[in-house]
Specification:
This protein is of the alpha+beta class. The chain is globular, with a radius of gyration of 26 Å. The chain has 16 helices and 31 strands. The two termini are 51 Å apart.
Length: 678
């Protein structure tokens, strides 16, 4: 092809992009400013865009009424996107809230909606007590709820995607005396709002400043409250500048929308690693105190008490838990491996005691793990979960593999684990899925397949350890289910055990499951699993923060300097950040090499560095009573489990799984070493 033809094609492509780029003008934009005098209801003033011929601005936004603010707006093309810059000048002291609506050509009923880390499709997997279409088809939320302060609308008919993202330095937040209704901020905030609205049957992007939430605000788990609108003070003679960017593009489906938006927002925000002084060795040294101070050795089953603790004491409780959220067996393996590497006999003795006691007392009549044992009430939870069972088998296989390398054999453990994996195969449904919850006699309690990928990991490991192809075939059937029912439908749900909704762990486990299969297959089959892992990885990534949420003075997390980039939101129901990562950083590094995708490699480092920040040690306890008991429920937005709210932790936490997750982050390529071992 000659240069003339190439030039012609480029010109045509640019012309196509310009013609199809969304326009911003009086026909599809509406704006409103609300002004409040303390002690009085706010007054709302619709604004009209008037094109300006001079003065350095593109538009002036005017009201029919005489208002004590002047508003100008510029619109410029930046890399094919429309950047909106708003200037507000105060001629009197004012308290204001500004909002803008950009109406698309898409029918609202044809659209799926996406707010990273909070809203996927229509949130119909979530109950009506959480934000979802069950309650309303229009939602706006404060930006710090979102892993990126962005809203995207995907038109399923035209395959067009529209998005709005906020551009700011995000340095400030302010306290308020109330959480609903019209509230006046105690100082300056950087937090605005974003969302989508149904405007006469058309889907519209909604954005503004400072924050508001409607039709409800979400204050704690399964608790919707009345809407809130915040008012920012602007002193006479002062001004404020606000910037948003509008983007539209063609995408193939909702998965492509999520991928496209993540890459775009990542490139725009450019999150960098967090500077910390905590090396892997330092992290493990401090975290190992959890193994010491949480150990319970006077019960039939020895364990680490890591569930339901109070942050102010971290006192032990009489509950032993195998997997989510206690992770006793994985912690015991970590303590054993680490203890022997640094000659800590106390860690080794306790870890071995845990494994020995579980071998004797840790199984049900049928041979499943007793997942949750309450010694205070002397009861076992009669309901099993595929996730906890899987996480227990996963831990034991690491333990057995390690012990074999040390020349130590455990035939009884091997027999138990073989039996469990055989029962997994019996439990697996024809479509490849696993029930979420079941009884000891295989009676299904919860048929949901959302937890299926948690079983894939131990099945692949069991295939490798025992050289049993039936385990590999079961793992492949499980991922075939994931491909058909979850990944291809972009419908990641209910992988966790304490929520029924869209959640991070569903996509993270799906991506990790595909990664495990890719590590033990070759050729086209390997490539297929790698493709599935990559596709689901974008959904997992969408839950992780690309920006640093601001905190108000006096909010502990801000006062200790927490940077939220690299932390992951949890689910639609549980709107807090945590350090759930386990294998995922390794998955990202592996995918980065497979697909030559530097964003994955770079963001894995952001995650790796950022999740170290709240390490509690003497002189830096971060409101945790004991060193090494890493915090769990990190409340970064206006939401809580019932205690403390933004800038703090809930008073009850489960450091057991947190320590296990961080330990895997600090032990890179663990799965690859296991699956590639001879």
């Amino acid at each position: 092809m000659d240069l003339k033809k190439i030039f012609t094609l480029v010109v045509c492509l640019l012309s196509f992009l310009l013609v199809n780029a969304i326009e911003i003008n009086q026909s599809n934009v509406s704006a409103l400013i609300s002004l409040k005098i303390p002690g009085n209801d706010a007054v709302h003033y619709p604004l009209v865009m008037n094109e300006m011929k001079s003065g350095g601005f593109d538009y002036q936004l005017t009201s029919d009424a005489d208002i004590p603010v002047t508003l100008f707006q510029n619109i410029e093309n930046v890399s094919g996107n429309k950047r909106i810059t708003l200037f507000i000048f105060a001629s009197e002291d004012v308290y204001f809230n500004f909002g803008e609506l950009l109406t698309t050509e898409a029918r609202h009923d044809d659209c799926l909606f996406y707010m990273p880390g909070f809203w996927y499709r229509k949130n119909l997997r979530s109950p009506k007590e959480a934000p979802s279409f069950h309650t309303s088809d229009s939602w706006v939320v404060r930006e710090d709820r979102l892993s990126t302060p962005l809203t995207s609308i995907f038109d399923t008919k035209s395959s067009k995607q529209y998005s709005v993202i906020r551009i700011d330095s995000f340095k400030y937040d302010a306290l308020t005396s109330h959480k609903e209704g019209e509230v006046i901020l105690s100082g300056k905030t950087s937090i605005g709002y974003t969302g989508f609205e149904n405007v006469d049957g058309k889907a519209a992007l909604s954005f503004g400043y400072p924050y508001k939430e409607a039709p409800n605000t979400y204050i704690r788990k399964l608790t919707l409250a009345p809407s809130v609108t915040a008012y920012q003070f602007l002193k006479k003679g002062e001004s404020i500048k606000l910037v948003w960017e509008i983007r539209d593009s063609n995408v193939s489906d909702f998965s492509d929308c999520v991928k496209s938006v993540w890459e775009y927002s990542y490139d725009l925000y450019k999150p960098v690693p967090v500077k910390t002084l905590y090396t892997n060795d330092k992290m493990k040294e401090v975290l190992s105190n959890f193994f010491v101070e949480s150990f319970v050795g006077d019960t039939p089953v020895k364990y680490y008490s890591g569930v339901g603790l109070n942050i102010s004491t971290c006192d032990k409780l009489e509950v032993a838990e195998i997997g989510f959220v206690g992770r006793t067996l994985l912690n015991a393996f970590n303590a054993l491996e680490y203890g022997e590497s640094v000659n800590r006999k106390d860690l080794v003795i306790n870890a071995k005691a845990i494994y020995d006691s579980y071998l004797t007392h840790g199984f049900s009549k049928m041979g499943f793990f007793n997942e949750v044992i309450d010694f205070k009430r002397n009861i076992y939870d009669p309901i099993h979960s595929i996730r906890r069972q899987s996480e227990g088998v996963y831990a034991v296989l690491y333990y057995l593999n390690y012990e074999k390398k040390q020349g130590r054999k455990h035939p009884e453990w091997e027999k138990k684990i073989r039996h469990m994996l055989d029962m997994f195969i019996k439990l697996q449904k024809e479509d490849g899925s696993f029930p979420r919850k079941f009884k000891d006699d295989f009676t299904v309690v919860d048929y949901s397949g959302g937890s299926t990928p948690s079983a894939t990991l131990p099945l692949v490991m069991g295939y490798k350890y025992f050289n049993e192809k039936c385990y590999l075939e079961a793992a492949k059937r499980s991922v075939k289910y994931l491909e058909g029912e979850i990944i291809s439908k972009a419908d990641y749900f209910s992988s966790t055990l304490d929520a029924n909704c869209e959640d991070k762990e569903a996509s993270l486990y799906a991506s990790t499951a595909a990664y495990y299969l890719a590590l033990v297959t070759k050729g086209k089959e390997k490539q297929h699993y790698a493709d599935l892992g990559r596709k689901s990885a974008y959904f997992a990534l969408s839950w992780y923060y690309t920006w640093d949420v601001p905190f108000a003075k006096g909010q502990m997390l801000g006062d200790v300097g927490l940077k939220t980039r690299g932390w992951g939101n949890v689910s639609v129901e549980n709107n807090h950040i945590d350090v759930f990562v386990f294998d995922f950083a390794d998955v990202l590094r592996w995918l980065a090499k497979e697909y030559n995708e530097p964003r994955f490699l770079d963001f894995a480092e952001v995650i790796n560095t950022s999740m170290r920040q709240l390490l509690p040690y003497d002189g830096h306890l971060c409101n945790i009573a004991k060193p090494g008991f890493y915090p769990e429920v990190v409340q970064h937005t206006n939401w809580d489990y019932g205690k403390n709210g933004k800038g703090y932790y809930n008073d009850i936490f489960a450091p057991g799984w947190v320590v296990a997750s961080l330990w895997e982050l600090l032990t890179p390529e663990r799965a690859e070493s296991f699956l590639n071992s001879k």
